[in-house]
Specification:
Blueprint: H1 28-39, H2 43-46, H3 61-73, H4 79-88, H5 90-95, H6 103-111, H7 114-130, E1 138-147, E2 155-156, H8 158-182, H9 189-215, E3 229-230, E4 237-241, E5 244-256, E6 262-268, H10 277-287, H11 293-300, E7 303-306, H12 313-321, E8 325-328, H13 333-336, H14 345-352, E9 364-366, E10 371-373, E11 379-389, E12 392-398, H15 401-405, H16 410-413, E13 424-428, H17 433-436, H18 439-448, H19 450-474, H20 484-510
The structure holds iron/sulfur cluster.
Residues 374-376, 378, 399, 403-404, 407, 409-410, 413-414, 422-423 line the site of iron/sulfur cluster.
Amino acid sequence: MARYKDYDYGQMKMIPVSFERQILPGSFEYSLAWLVDHELDLAELDARYCNDDGGRPAYDPRVLLKIVLLAYSKGVTSSRRIERLCRENIVFMALGADLQPDHSTIADFISRSPETIGGLFTQIVMTCDQLGLIGKEMFAIDGCKLPSNASKQWSGTHEELDKKRRKIDRAVRRMLQRHREEDTAATEPDIHAREQAQIKKLRAASRKIKTFLDTEPERRGVSGAVVKGNLTDNESAKMKTSHGVIQGYTGVAAVDDRHQVVVYAEAFGQGQEHGLIQPMLEGIRSTYASAPANSRKTLKRAKLTADAGYHNRETLEYLERERVDAYIADTGFRARDPRFKDHKAAPERNKRQDQHRFTQEDFHIDLNQQTCRCPAGKAMWLKAQRARIGHHLFMQFQAYEHDCANCRLRVRCLRDEHQSTPRQVNVMLDITPARKDGVIERMKRKIDSARGRHIYSQRLGTVEPVFGHLTDAIGIRRFSLRTKRKVDGQWKWMMMLHNILKIHRYGWQWA
Ligand code: SF4
């Protein structure tokens, strides 16, 4: 017969816990507690509490700050999970002095005052600077697109949303009609109740869309074109990422190259990044506005790098006006770089299938008269005098559909002989001397130089590890808040955590 050790679930045991001894020197929580207690000025946070004469005592913001940053360092951003950690995890209990704040207190602390977090973020950057973690020789700017607390199913232009609302209304009418017809027949009561609940849900959705359309103006993007709005968070944007389409924000960071310290961070509700250099540069300057004069002077000499997403004429002109030593790649940068000549292989392979196709030389083009005749002798119409594709201007001609439809040369002229669209020819217009000396050409010459390539090559290793560390090592892959103001605050929480981790790893040896 089997024999087991005696056990008793009803027994009691006293386990003495010293909270102080849970925060061991050398651990991240020790660095965090030290920073919050000895380095940060939390007067701005203290000013939010006006309960000295009456009311219940509040949680000390120092305790909440430590708890939230420790939770973020473990990839936990949900206030309910943070509450649970404060009840169950001994390190959280120790760092939070066993106060165990509930989730609403934590959520309120994270989202209530994003501006205050901006101030704390600046203080951490200044601490990094004092510890010698910021070189101020080169800053790399880039963005990371993360989903936020909004559903992409509820996004669309006003026209699309109105169409969706009419579709829902039609579905409700159909269901009601069917009910009326089946009124006489005996229906199962639970089926009836389920359909009633569905009608109620659809009507609520229709009302929600109508209220949105009545109250929110059509949203416009950076170029002024109409873009999709969103019912749950109209400041977020629907954007393409390498992991599919998301509804969210682009968190942009300016990162110093010495130890990848983030000197400025801001979240934007748009997918396009061109146009973001200006607010980021102003943000870096505002971070250093209260810094000593020699620190601001060094900042002026710093170089700035960004990838092709940030490249456009307005940005380059702005950077020249501001006398910033910038290195912004354009989309053709890699193709011009002899070190990446192998990267051209793929497009050339694609071109091979077009080698028997009529080229531009087979068309009779007169740019002065703005006319074009195709190899079959048919006149083509002028589609655009100056169409911008990438950074070049083209004159575009297109054949008439009926000409191509009956043409015996289709096989040699069209990419696919079965295609229904007619042939189009894009003729690149000459780059004028004025354009050659323009800001785009100047940037090309600068970034194509040996020095330009060397400086730009440091961009990738400076800024990309910051996002990789956040999303893969820490495990934060989404924003949990809504509206640009709150999401911006949360992005600063994340980037502040990144900088504190840098202080923890490299800062103390410099101190
Ligand atoms: S396919 Fe169209 S464009 Fe090409 S040769 Fe025939 S008519 Fe002209």
